[in-house]
Amino acid sequence: MHLTIREALAIYPLTEAKLVAGKQGDSRIVKSVNVMDAPDIADWTKSGEMLFTTAFAMKDSPQETVNLLRKLNDRGAAGLGIKLGRFWTELPQIVVEEADRLHFPIIEMPFQFTFSDGMNALFNAEYRRNTELLQTVLEKQKKLMHVGLKQDHMLTMFQLIRDILGYPMAVVGARGQILYNASTWSPDQLAQNWPSKRKSGWVYTGKDRAYRIGLQQQEEPLGHLLVMPDVLLLTAVEEGLFQQAADILMFHMSYTFRSFVEASAERDMQNYLSRYLDKGAGLEEFMEQAEARGLFIFTGAFQCVVAKVKKESLGAEALHENFKDVKHYMETHAKSSNFRGYHFMLKDRMFSIYSTTQGDGFPEEDLSQLLSKYEGNSATGDGLVFYTSSPKAKPTALREAYMECGETERMGSLLQLPDRVLNFETIEFAHLFQHLSTPTMEDYCAKILRPLLEKDPEYSQEMIRTLEVFIRNDGQVSEAAKQLFIHRNTVTYRLEKISDLLQVDFKKVNDLLKLKAVFLFRQFLQVR
């Protein structure tokens, strides 16, 4: 609490109170409020505390009240509120005179209100005032952030400082990149290995010289300000002016330009990655860029995922927001602790590398389930699809994993697969058999399914549909029943009939592979 006596008396119900003594002390600060219940209360009173009392503890001795006022004043108390009418009908004159002498406020409290009414009113008023103050400060902070985070203001800031200083100047980033140059110095002259410590002084390159001030935020180097004055000696005032200019630049570069520099570094890293994935360039450059940013991607087995939005008409901004949601979901989900994701924007898709944090292989099933859940929880109707590679053990297999994601996307589109999470293992057979001729596929399907196809068309279609869903779900009866919206016993019954007709055993791997090939060929035949 931080109210003056004057401000406190403007708060209802203290508006009904009267300042009857020590009026010159109405600027004293009230930091807390307490109720006086003992004569020795002064020994426990804190600075800025205001006491409320009925005068019971001092009703028999006005002189003791005077002594109490002196002690309270010495302790830094804010004032004394007395409710008259119960033990005192009026303040003794000796008390009034002493309060006036000490400029110690005494307030006559309204009889019809309790002390808690006054205390609550003061606390609520202070709470409202603090809330308003916080809101005001927050609004100011937002405005400062909006000004500071606009990247297009950096060039204007450089030009403004250059005009103020009145000398040629240049600003060089921490990595040697030239951020601004309004001098006759060449890029080679500016790209010197300047000292990284924040130190002011003259630096030389050939016959030219400049006054350099290092730009550093705490322990992080941001770059250098180089001023090229046309005078031999600088006064302390001019050096101080250059230092002030450096402080302004340091502030803006710390809060404004850092995001630009990071975005530039991220673009460089993505360019290295794109050249490696698309053209087979060296992986070492990408890994060096990643490690320079503190990203140690390949800590163990990894799996790659390409995320793509089916809706091709989606704008770039909406596309970016979709991928941003995926990144946030995968980074914050409780079940993502077994792997760590690194995400890169590659044109109209997001390429992610998920590296395990464990030492016993990659948790492929966990990743697949998380991706499936995201699509299920997504409120957008844009249709995000995830294409995953098979797990890899070594960094050199990164391009192979990327190619597998691309092949999974191509085959999924060719076969018009409805899955939102499509694994490379799912389409591996399709990848192997895609070049078989149409007659070969037709003959094989007819040979395997002939006993079913010779039955009644409605019956055969129903049984083939059941068998297809069963094979697609890796032989799981319960999952097949869910997708067919029938009881699992019905699925079991149908499978027994199919087994008898086709002379297959669903427990044998060879028979399952035959049936998997049949339905893969049927998918090819539908789209050819």
From TrEMBL:
Top-level taxon of the source organism: Bacteria
Transmembrane segments: none
Coiled-coil segments on the chain, per record: none
Purine catabolism PurC-like domain: residues covered: 12-122
Domain PucR C-terminal helix-turn-helix positions: 464-517
Record-linked Pfam families: HTH_30, PucR
PANTHER family named in the record: CARBOHYDRATE DIACID REGULATOR, DNA-BINDING TRANSCRIPTIONAL ACTIVATOR ADER
The protein's name in its UniProt record: PucR family transcriptional regulator
